[in-house]
C-alpha cells in the first residue's frame, strides 16, 4: 500500500506571524506574487513552501537562482511555473508539461482550444504480446495563438525522457504545425506526437492497430 501525501509546510512555529507574513491557514503554505514576494515586501519564499506551486526540487533550485539574480544581479527573469516538465515514475510512466486540460479550459475557454490525442503501442511490447492501446498521448493547443502547444501529456514507457525533450520545444513556442512538420523517429514512443490528427472534439476512434 502506497500513501503519497506530499510534503507538509512547517511554517506555523518559525515566527512568520511576528513580522506579519501571511500563510494559507488550510495548508500552512505561503502565498507569493510572480516574483516570489510575500505580503511583506522584504520577505521572499521559494520551493515547496509556496502556495499553489509545484513541489519539485528542480523548480525550487531554478526559482532560487532566478530570485538571487533579480535581487543582486540586475536580472528581470522570473520562474516559469507553468511549462515545467514532470513525471510520475510508476511502472507505466506518466509525463506532462504545461497545462492540464481542465486548467487550460479555465484559463483560455474551451472554445479556444483544440485537443489532439492518440493511443499507441510501443514496438517493444509486440514481442511479449502486451496489451495494445494501453499508452496514451495528448497535446492541448491554443487556437487563438497559432495553435501553440500549451499542454503535453504522455502515458507510456520512458515518458520522462520524452517529456524532457518536448519541454524545451514548448518553451520555444512549439505549435501543432511545427509538430506536423517534424519527422518522427520510427519506431519510438515520442513519434506519436508528430502524427496526431484526431481531435478530442471529433469523437473519432483513437485506437491503433500496430506499433
TrEMBL record:
Cofactor: FAD
A GO molecular-function annotation: flavin adenine dinucleotide binding
Coiled-coil annotated residue ranges, if any: none
Source organism of the structure: Falcunculus frontatus (Eastern shriketit)
The protein's name: TRXR3 reductase
Limits of the FAD/NAD(P)-binding domain: 1-64
InterPro entries: FAD/NAD-bd_sf, FAD/NAD-binding_dom, FAD/NAD-linked_Rdtase_dimer_sf, GSHR/TRXR-like, Pyr_nucl-diS_OxRdtase_dimer
GO biological process: cell redox homeostasis; cellular response to oxidative stress; glutathione metabolic process
Domain (Pyridine nucleotide-disulphide oxidoreductase dimerisation): residue spans on this chain: 84-196
GO cellular component assignments: cytosol; mitochondrion
Pfam family name, one: Pyr_redox_dim
Family indicated by similarity: Belongs to the class-I pyridine nucleotide-disulfide oxidoreductase family.
UniProt keyword annotations, A-Z: Disulfide bond, FAD, Flavoprotein, NADP, Oxidoreductase, Redox-active center
